[in-house]
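Thread: Modeling a multi-component assembly for a lab meeting

Hi all, long-time lurker, first post. My supervisor asked me to bring a structural picture of a complex we are working on to next week's group meeting, and I have zero experience with this. I have the sequence lines for every component (413 residues in total). Could someone generate the structure of the whole assembly? Inputs are pasted exactly as I received them:
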Amino acid sequence: MKLGVLFSGGKDSILALHKAAEKEKVVCLITLVSENKESFMFHTPNIDVTALQAEALGLPLIRKATAGEPEEELKDLEEAIAQAVKDFEVDGVVTGAVESVYQAARIQQICNRLGVWCVNPLWKRNQKALLEEVVAEGFKTVISGVFAYPLDKTWLGKQIDPEMIERLVALSEEYGLSPSGEGGEIETTVLDAPMFKKKIEVLDSEVEAQGNSGVFRIKQARLTEK
Amino acid sequence: MILVVDMNSAENPFGFSEFVLPIVSIAEKLEKCDVNHYLEVNEKSLNGYDKIILSGSALKNTVTLDQTARFTWLKDCGKPVLGICAGMQTIGLVFGGHMEKCREIGMTEIATVKANILFSSTFKVYALHNYALVPSAEFEMLAESANCVHAIKHKHKAVYGVLFHPEVRNKEVVERFISAFHVDRRI
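Re: Modeling a multi-component assembly
Sure thing. I ran the full set together rather than chain by chain. Output:
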């Protein structure tokens, strides 16, 4: 089975990529760049870093811009997946969906129309266990966005480690947050992972935050030897 | 002891984690459970299990629907069975039903049409199918969506089927099935 991975550059899509690559051949990455900050499907603060991540992984990247209107962005995604089928002969598409039936159902519909497998290696996994796996596997993952109370700018740019996982789990119990950000509470950017041939070094960044909403924006970065 | 039957084909090595493990994570909180692939299940291998859950599978995976001869043990096993999506479809075919095209992908409203031990009223479920079962007269319908039959029970056996995926948003359906047929081995 040749697979394309829907790729935001966050921990879930890159962990899903690793799990897919354990069993089948991953041949390309697919990224939608949304202009809509409210998009339920594709918004992520450091989407431009996906080009560096793809280079670090040694995989071609299909990158498609979308205005991010609710139904139009699904047409754009379908076109991007269709391009992966045409250019790389993928038999299936991998997603990092864990709990979101909104995302999962829409991608299932597109894959069904195109006649390709829809693979969700993280589906329904325990969120704390997923965070622990990300750390245990050696991912260097930073918080690149916070969007819910009581998270604030102090979290931005920080690396996910065992202590942070405990704090996120405690907040999930107290405030009902999804510990791994399934409800859009946090966004992440992966700077290094086992399949990366090089790691990403952040040269310049900025934090833009107001109250319980903010992003850690990578302005300049490069690949360096591991 | 519960047996969860993996209904995924070898063609899709990811089906186990996506369609079987979520059921196991619900079931093992209530009782011990094992998983066997459908190709390894027969009358003899059912010994020691009190109840059986047949998993669902990916949209592109309809392999068990062409292999109903492998599931004839369903007719005489005498154990409670819950089939989920492909599991329900397979049960229905074994007992003489047939399939019809019916695509539902995503959250779908279904209505209970007959009182039963698994659910009641009208509620939303996660659907993931291109075909629905038209059950034989051996079954009674328990629930339906606007488009198709969503849950069935055999008229004389504890054999249930749900077309939706309860492991996604309705895990209480799996829990009620397990609890309803709980066997206390301490006695």
